[in-house]
Amino acid sequence: MSLIHFQILSAALFSIGIYGVLARRNAVLVLLALELMLNAVNINLIAFAAYGEGAQATGQVIAIFVITVAAAEVGLAMAIILRLFRDRASVDVDEVDLMKW
Amino acid sequence: MSLSLAVFYLLGVVCLGGAVGVVMSRNVVHAALLLLVSLMAVAGLYLLLLAEFLALVQVLIYGGAITIVVLFVIMLTRVQEFRAMRANPQWPLAIVTALGVFVLLAWAIINGAPNETARHSVAFRELGDSLFTKWAVPFEVASLVLLVALIGAIVIARERDAE
Question: How far apart are CA B127 and CA A59, in angstroms?
């Protein structure tokens, strides 16, 4: 088991997340796919922290910050989705075009 | 094949299988629960990487908080509508993009990465020291981010009957 194993896994998880973000129309599902992408980044950070020489705490600390931002993002996004559902009775991202050019 | 490699493949299959389920599932509740499966497998991977604290945080934040919030929002919005919802018409393009990104990343990883095999663990004490000395300012900024996000979420989601 080496660094490459974890990196390939992380790349695969990130790609699945990209597919989810691009292909789903439900805002909640887009958000779930985004969480997958953030987790792929975290796997990468922690893998480098574990396999790198020296300064190992740095990778884990940055992973903690990523998790913090992910939590804040989920809270805000869920509030926006709730608001959207109340105002428009829909969570379809294709129908949300108010800020489109 | 060593035990840790076998555990890695097991967790990897669970993680990627759950992730595929998240992006393929027609039922949004199933997608949220499969996300939980995938993220718990990621917590196992953190244990394999000797990052015990991160594994704990992963279970607490993702298993305990984020999945519950997502399920609450699914509960508060209409589930019937989710069931009928199909994928975007642009899904073939999405598959091509995702595969392209994966091939590019894998190519870069295989050609560029140093192939380290020795893992080092980080002691709790070392992590805490680093977090509260070297990273103290970013840590405070992160708490501010959480506070602002919390207030913003309340403001956005509040009922506006009074206006």
Answer: 10
